[in-house]
Amino acid sequence: MVADLFYYFIYPGFLFTAVIGGLIAGVDRKITARVQFRKGPPIIQPFYDFLKLLLVKETILPAKGSKITFLLAPVFAVFGASTSAILIMLPLFGINTGFQGDVIVVFYLLGIPSLAYIIGALASGNPLAAVGGSREMKLIISYELTFILIIAAIILKAGASISLYKIIEIQQSGTAFIGSVSGVLLFIAAIFCVQAKLGLVPFDMGEAETEIAEGAFIEYSGSAYALIKLTKYMLFFTLPAFIILLFLSGIQFSGIHILWSVLKLVAVVLLITLIRNTNPRLKIGQAMRFFLIWMNLLVVVAITLSYLGY
Predict the structure, then answer these.
(1) Confidence of residue 99 (pLDDT cuts 50, 70, 90)
(2) Do the beta carbons of residue 57 and residue 74 sit within 8 Å?
(3) Which of 121, 247, 239 is nearest to 185 (CA)?
(4) Whole-model pTM?
(5) Angle formed at CA 82 by CA 232 and CA 88, multiple of 5 degrees
(6) What is the domain count for the chain?
């Protein structure tokens, strides 16, 4: 029991994921600044932002809307991010306990933060937040179908196993799933799904600072907004780690594999950051067509090739 609590709250769960996620968010901001020929903030700036919101800034509640729902939404977002993180990190770090989950459970848990954003936006009573929530809802409908098809393809490749431990074991005993034509196609679709889940360009229309002034989060401030920031930091580590688990045979802590594991994480994060900085924001209709038509078509082709052994 004590060990399970340690795994959930300290390592490799809540605290570990939050710290590494904050560092990754700082690196992302630093790279973004360099791409734009700016110096940028220090890498630990996300921690300053979080602590300032949590300890200094006042939490202002909207005059209209449901205040209790408004405040609970960020709490549920953190819960979804932290619970999915522990279920991903345990098999990724090779820790075997009775506290396990499978790929289907993780899929549902990763959807909780986005749903919490929508609920919080609608509970604020702000029309701009409602627009942001509406966009986020349409985006979820689009990319979640692609994401579940990717999960189905991974299950097919893993011999119909839904265990995250088994998915890693099959890859480490053979070839990483990305080492096939179908795996490459699935990896491309998965990267775009992660981009949308993180709310990064070109799929940041739910926030869209220049159009709807942070959209779904326009009414959030203080500690409530700090929890939203924390959720995003955690997902910035959890989602790339999930990609590594599904396609890149996980990570290993022996010899040269340690360096290779770090490089895999760096490569995925760098790819996400480069996509963010080299694309304009899409309209919500364009994003929906992108996932519902092109990404779904790509995944269906990948599933067919996987079934044929490619």
Answers:
(1) low
(2) no
(3) 247
(4) 0.93
(5) 105
(6) 1
